[in-house]
């Protein structure tokens, strides 16, 4: 497979982990988001949304939106499974994943940050209050649910990695970048640490991708 | 089934349509979001996120997040199907649905609007610039994709209603409430009109739910 991505993209990170865990060979094409590559005609013809990831599986149209791609990979490459078997457990995994991918991550992407600065004239430091509110709201909900719901195990749902863990770690990575205090979220931290210990996650890590700053 | 919802919630609207199309009997319990019912301990025990919808299917934990609920309903009540059969078509439906449910709707929910007004001291009219930007970005992407991608038919994917259409109409309904110019989005409008003509959608319409203002 071939994926347009960017080392910094939380959504591309999720997809890389799934590809690694399922043992699917892929090539990642680095899109320079700072240079605005995502808004150039060549890429807009691939994804009119001007966003990564965009995944090509052989011929055929590009696949976009990280959660849609994760479900596609699950349906076309069921091994190793990243969703549990029962409908209720699957619904819980998807709900946890969507706390991140719907209600948290879209609030802190560059286009939102830029709109706040450009439209309202906010300096970067004040704009970041919006971003930090998104992070802490998402982390608080995850912590509350993961620390109280019966389904939680070594990972978000039992002892197997699922879409919820891919989303969790894609959020967690941002806490370092944006200086978010992680002390109030011990259960999220425990699961993030378990994820980071996996080779498939380590290889997918943002800082190990093309274009990332040197360590 | 029993659903905690609110007439105004775009996410609850999506779930109501699915329940109606699948012929699943349900009772909706009105949660007064203006009175802050979603943040009272009784409801936070159901959904720590303080958000609707929350669906109960018999005994067992509440189901939350509208897209997760739609997939749960699809898995437990496959008739009438609201996802196409092939993985690529399913991925396209999910991607279109997520343009709305991940990248558009979460940007204009009350908690975001309130944060902008309270934290930055923006008057309502200036806050609405953020909301209108979210709407027009989402609508522009949908229009571009639906008017150019081969999969589009009478509905978003071919001639059968899918999750993408449920999300599309849940966004469309907001254009009237927030005074968004819909003229640049003729393909979105055509599909929205086809949706509104369905009895299952008409019965799920926000203005026909408990708590809605009189026409």
TrEMBL record, chains A, B:
GST C-terminal domain segment(s): 86-214
The keyword Translocase is annotated on this UniProt entry: no
Domain of life: Bacteria
GO molecular function terms noted in the UniProt entry: maleylacetoacetate isomerase activity
SUPFAM superfamilies: GST C-terminal domain-like, Thioredoxin-like
EC number, as in UniProt: 5.2.1.2
Family matches, as Pfam families: GST_N
PANTHER family the UniProt entry points to: MALEYLACETOACETATE ISOMERASE
Family per record: Belongs to the GST superfamily. Zeta family.
Protein name: Maleylacetoacetate isomerase
Lineage per the UniProt record: Bacteria, Pseudomonadati, Pseudomonadota, Alphaproteobacteria, Hyphomicrobiales
């Amino acid at each position: 497979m071939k994926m347009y991505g960017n080392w910094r993209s939380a959504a591309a990170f999720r997809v890389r982990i799934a590809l690694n865990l399922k043992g699917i060979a892929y090539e990642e094409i680095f899109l320079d988001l700072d240079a605005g590559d995502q808004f150039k005609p060549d890429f807009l013809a691939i994804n009119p949304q001007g966003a990564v990831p965009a995944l090509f599986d052989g011929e055929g149209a590009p696949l976009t939106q990280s959660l849609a791609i994760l479900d596609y990979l699950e349906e076309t490459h069921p091994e190793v499974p990243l969703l549990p078997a029962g409908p209720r457990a699957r619904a819980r995994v998807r709900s946890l994943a969507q706390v991140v991918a719907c209600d948290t991550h879209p609030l802190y992407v560059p286009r939102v940050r830029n709109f706040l600065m450009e439209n309202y004239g906010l300096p970067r430091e004040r704009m970041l209050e919006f971003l930090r509110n998104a992070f802490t709201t998402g982390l608080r909900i995850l912590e509350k649910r993961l620390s109280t719901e019966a389904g939680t195990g070594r990972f978000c749902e039992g002892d197997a990695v699922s879409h919820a863990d891919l989303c969790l770690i894609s959020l967690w990575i941002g806490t370092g970048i944006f200086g978010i205090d992680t002390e109030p979220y011990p259960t999220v931290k425990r699961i993030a640490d378990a994820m980071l210990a996996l080779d498939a996650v380590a290889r997918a890590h943002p800082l190990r991708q093309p274009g990332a700053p040197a360590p």
